[in-house]
């Protein structure tokens, strides 16, 4: 292979994954940050990251980072790292559109000796079977002769200020042994936690997709136990606290499984499995359980409202939190929406609030969701604490009581934020997963 004497790096896609990566590299080298969203580019040029993954002062430290939405500027680069989303469609099938479009854009400027590295979560084989042919088509170059590829799965945890890009061990891989070493050295220059060089791109792809599949299945088990223990009138979290005293008991908890990773990645693996003639059993069973939890939360709350003689036709339910996880503005694949839609299907008015989510983004992503106020002046007949934002976690039983219309109002503590004994002493009808 032609050895790159000097790396000119471009990061394609400046979201939750791409921007922190670009900022980290830009502390050491010149980096071109590319995104097709011009509004996003303008905001980053102004020095602010709306995802809150990178602080403003850290943005200023990235002296080598420049931003562009012009594909032609990519022509000056010779190493491209692709960090675009890989969602699923309405049928829960992989949607590779952003990945294919990014590959087309790179293919148009690809030169001999260039390297394209993918970080987006995919199924085993996607890089070489889906992306490389696009690069070949639009560049007219031949893979592993004229240009090369690699895969290094992202491990960003949105909202996590402890586990950052540089402090999380990185899996790397390349399409030839020589390229694999170049890619590994590139990442090793910023990853203080070290790297793990996988033997092939397909192994690296598979490693990424099972990381989140494993978490998904463990949470699914906790969710199923929660449903069972509710029928047995046993507090699930109290059971987990007791079981957790054993040294090797895994500390998973029940809850909503949303976001762009855990609730999505298993479908990439199962889709590939079906294409090679294997129908996965355990993985899909876990997905069905987790995908049903929003409906379960809403229906359980409605049942308790009916038992407390609350008129559903005039009732208002307040929902605290709309993002997929606490203390971050990411609303992608938020399962809180499933709770809201289920209430709405019963004709119940829902008012939702979130201190982090962008109202314009919510209106675009989830039309029909009423964003309002839930406070002492706007009390509700039922309250769903859906996301563990720090603003909600500090609420006292008295604070919660002030948000409720009557003693019969119901509180659904989805995240187990509040002390059930204190809520009971305050006369609040509450339940939790």
From TrEMBL:
Protein keywords: NAD, Oxidoreductase
Q: Which residues form the UDP-glucose/GDP-mannose dehydrogenase C-terminal domain?
A: 318-420
The molecular function terms in GO held by this entry are: NAD binding; oxidoreductase activity, acting on the CH-CH group of donors, NAD or NADP as acceptor; oxidoreductase activity, acting on the CH-OH group of donors, NAD or NADP as acceptor
Q: Where is the signal peptide?
A: none
**Gene Ontology process terms (BP):** polysaccharide biosynthetic process
Which one Pfam family would you cite for this protein? UDPG_MGDP_dh_N
Cited InterPro entries:
6-PGluconate_DH-like_C_sf, NAD(P)-bd_dom_sf, UDP-Glc/GDP-Man, UDP-Glc/GDP-Man_DH_C, UDP-Glc/GDP-Man_DH_C_sf, UDP-Glc/GDP-Man_DH_dimer, UDP-Glc/GDP-Man_DH_N, UDP_ManNAc/GlcNAc_DH
Family from the record: Belongs to the UDP-glucose/GDP-mannose dehydrogenase family.
Q: Which NCBIfam families match?
A: NDP-sugDHase
Report what the protein is called: Nucleotide sugar dehydrogenase
State the species of origin: Thauera aminoaromatica
Organism ancestry: Bacteria, Pseudomonadati, Pseudomonadota, Betaproteobacteria, Rhodocyclales
């Amino acid at each position: 292979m032609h050895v790159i004497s000097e790396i000119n790096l471009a990061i394609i896609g400046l979201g939750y994954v791409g921007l922190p990566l670009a900022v980290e590299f830009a502390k050491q080298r010149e980096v071109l940050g590319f995104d097709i969203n011009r509004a996003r580019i303008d905001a980053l040029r102004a020095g602010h990251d709306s995802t809150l993954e990178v602080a403003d002062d850290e943005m200023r430290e990235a002296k080598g980072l420049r931003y562009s939405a012009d594909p032609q500027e990519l022509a000056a680069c010779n190493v491209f790292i692709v960090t675009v989303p890989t969602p699923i469609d309405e049928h829960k099938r992989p949607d590779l559109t952003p990945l294919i479009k990014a590959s087309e854009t790179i293919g148009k400027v690809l030169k001999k000796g260039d390297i394209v590295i993918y970080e987006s979560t995919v199924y085993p084989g996607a890089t070489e079977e889906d992306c490389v042919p696009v690069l070949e088509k639009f560049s007219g170059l031949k893979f592993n002769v004229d240009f090369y590829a690699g895969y290094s799965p992202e491990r960003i945890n949105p909202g996590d200020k402890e586990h950052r890009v540089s402090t999380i061990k990185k899996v790397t891989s390349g399409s030839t042994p020589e390229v694999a070493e170049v890619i590994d050295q590139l990442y090793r220059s910023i990853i203080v936690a070290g790297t793990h060089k996988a033997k092939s791109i397909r192994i690296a792809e598979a490693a990424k997709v099972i990381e989140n599949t494993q978490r998904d299945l463990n949470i699914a088990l906790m969710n199923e136990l929660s449903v069972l223990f509710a029928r047995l009138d046993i507090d699930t979290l109290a059971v987990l606290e007791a079981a957790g005293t054993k040294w090797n008991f895994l500390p998973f908890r029940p809850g909503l499984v949303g976001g762009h990773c855990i609730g999505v990645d298993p479908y990439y693996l199962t889709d590939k499995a079906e294409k090679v003639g294997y129908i996965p059993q355990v993985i899909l069973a876990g997905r069905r359980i987790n995908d049903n939890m929003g409906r379960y939360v809403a229906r359980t709350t409605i049942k308790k409202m009916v038992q407390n003689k609350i008129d559903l036709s005039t009732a208002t339910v307040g929902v605290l939190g709309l993002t997929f996880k606490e203390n971050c503005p990411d609303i992608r694949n938020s399962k809180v929406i499933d709770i809201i839609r289920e209430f709405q299907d019963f004709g119940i008015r829902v008012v939702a609030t979130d201190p982090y989510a962008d109202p314009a983004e919510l209106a675009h992503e989830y039309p029909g969701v009423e964003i309002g106020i839930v406070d002492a002046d706007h009390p509700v007949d039922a309250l769903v604490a859906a996301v563990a934002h720090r603003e909600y976690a500090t609420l006292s039983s008295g604070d919660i009581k002030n948000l409720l219309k009557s003693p019969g109002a119901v509180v659904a503590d989805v995240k187990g934020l509040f002390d059930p004994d204190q809520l009971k002493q305050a006369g609040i009808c509450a339940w939790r997963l």
